[in-house]
Amino acid sequence: MNLDIATVDADLDIVSVETTAKYEGYLVRQQQAVERNRKLESTRIPRDMTFEGVPGLSRELVQRFTQTRPETLGQALRIPGSTPAAVAVLGAHLRQRSAASLSSPSEAIG
């Protein structure tokens, strides 16, 4: 019976390196998915949002979003019937809406 700890540690290190090498691609993709989800959870949907004006959303999703009023894109993704593509369309619309409101000149009230 070999109780040499140095040999056991070396074997464990080799297994760890092999496991890391085998699953590195999966781990990277998982980390990217976590980052995307964080962005979705932090992207807020304005309370006054009218989903009817979002091109590309189905009538069903417009109705569901209007009824549930999700506060973030992450919440919108968890609504039954919602798809990642629909949330991407909604996110693009929000970015476009935000850019338009920032670039429009403010009118002076006389």
Per-chain topology:
Layout: H1 5-42, H2 59-68, H3 73-77, H4 84-103
Describe the structure using short key phrases.
110 residues; mainly alpha; DNA polymerase, domain 1; 66% helix
CATH topology (fold) name: DNA polymerase, domain 1
CATH architecture: Orthogonal Bundle
Quaternary organization: single chain
Dominant shape: elongated
Helix content: 55-70%
Q: State the major sheet.
A: none
Mean pLDDT: 83
Structural class: mainly alpha
Radius of gyration computed on alpha carbons: 24 Å
Question: What is the gist of this entry?
Answer:
This protein is mainly alpha-helical and 110 residues long.
Descriptive account of the structure:
By secondary structure, this protein is mainly alpha-helical. The chain has four helices and no strands. The chain has helices at residues 5-42, 59-68, 73-77, 84-103.
